[in-house]
Every structure is written in C-alpha cells, then in structure tokens.
Amino acid sequence: MFVDIDKLEEKFALLQSDIFNNFLSLEKDLSVGDEDIWNSDIAKGHVKIISEGATFEKAIASFSMIKSSNLPNSSNILKRFPKSNGYIAMGVSVIAHPLSPLIPTSHLNVRIFLIFDNDSLIDWWIGGGCDLTPFFESKEDFRFWHKSLKSYLDSYDKSLYKLFAKQCDEYFYLPHRNEKRGIGGIFFDDHKMDNIDNSLSFLKDLVKTYNKNIYQIVNHKIKDEYNENHREFQKIRRGRYVEFNLLHDRGTKFGLESGGRTKSILSSLPPAVSYPFDTPEHLLEFEKKLNKVLETCWIINQ
Q1: From CA 239, how far away is CA 241, in angstroms rounded?
Q2: pLDDT digits (tens, 9 = 90+) for 129-153
Q3: What is the pTM of this model?
Q4: Which residues are the active-site residues?
C-alpha cells in the first residue's frame, strides 16, 4: 500500500494553521505569532507560538513528524510488530493557557502512526482527542463542550462518544492525587476509518469542533472580571497540569524516548506556575468548589 507522506504532511500543516489562526482571531492586538521550524536526523517540526497575548498567556500549535526504525518502549507497539523495521509518526499537538483564570486551559492532539516492513506499509491508525481543564466552574461552557463533541462523533457513529469520553476521563487522571485533570472531553488511540483519507477527515472534523468550542468559550468569559486571588489559584492549579505531563502523559514519554526535541515536547507546560506547600487559606473555598467540579461526571448520558 502506497502512502504519499508529503501529502499527509500538508494536511496536518493545514490543521495546524486552522487552529493557530483561530487563536489569533481571539487576540486583540496580535495578527501574527512567533514560529520555530526545526529539523534533526530523524524528525522535523514547525511550532507556532503566542506568548503573553491579551487572551492567551501561552498558546502553542506544534506540528511534528518522526521517522525511525526503533520503536520506543512507551509506544506499546513492540509486542505487535517485533519484526517491523520502520515507522512514521506525524501529528499536531495543541495547548492553550489563557491569561484569565476564568477561561479553562484546553488541549488537543491529532496524529497518525504508520508501520512499515521495508518500504511496505503493514499497518496504520489514528489517535487524538481534546480535553478542558478549568479552574472555576462554568456549567454552561462545560455542557456546551461535551454536547458539541457528542454531536461531532454522533455524525460518524453514535457509539463513539461515550467510549471516547470515558477513555478521556480515565486517561487524564492523576492517580497520586486521586483526581481528574479537568472536566474531560474525548480521547482515542488505535482507531481507523475504512481508509486513511476518511480517517484524516475524521481528524479534520475534530479540529473544526475544537476551534468552534474554544472560540465560543473564550468569548463567553473574556470580559468577566477576575482578581489576584483568582490568578493565584490558577497558577497553583496549573501545577496539576505539570504533574500529569511529566509523570503520566504517554505522548511526552514517547517524544523523549524516540529522540524528539525536548524544547518542543515540553512546550505544553504552563508559563507561570506556583507550588506552595499548602493551599493558602484564602483560596480554600476556590479549591473546595473546584473539587466538586472535578468529582462530577460531565459525560452526556442521553
């Protein structure tokens, strides 16, 4: 089976541009962001960056592709393909850390994995998803987020939403704290449609849904006022994001073990984080309310 790698790369680059342009449309005084194009012996990438914007304190849309003959242990693929001698992993990873603590942090990832035996493609699959990490409750936004994701997946297969939403809650979980990272979304791996083109259309529709959701959620909260206590609490809770990405995230482990660029792999970490020994007393009410949000199952059951 022949796969046009250059064409695949073009399609993922277009998804990256769509996402980043959506971020830029939500900024007041920023029409372009920074970018970083890089290459190594086995990988290459293109990172688009917003730093210290009026809306996003940090927003990253990163395309990367790695081509290698050595599968990392973290990929859990060695048992399935012990005799394969090559793979290509390609995708776009997105993180948006808004300045306002009233707007949730959001994450998205879309990717394809190709396994080769010599020059012959022997298997492939797609993965990805998106999730929302709030610091303060907004039931309207949380319900809209899940309703929109359900509508997107229902257009393909009505059995997918509950499965992918459950997998998201299970994956974005901090076992050492016994808490979810946020209010969930969807997460899937080792998935495929009937062919690669249709699978890429599936990912494209996910990106469209994410863009629509973020645009609406940001505009819903962007004018809401917050104070230094809200901001202080946001920085403390961002620490949970750091913990998950460094301790549990398979994408982080895969990138580091496969020889990816550390600077890009860790670009999802928040720009400003606080790690007090205990939550300050004046923020305990915020923490109590957020814990109730995290303990709630936001998955739509109808």
Answers
A1: 5
A2: 999 999 999 999 999 999 999 999 9
A3: 0.94
A4: 107
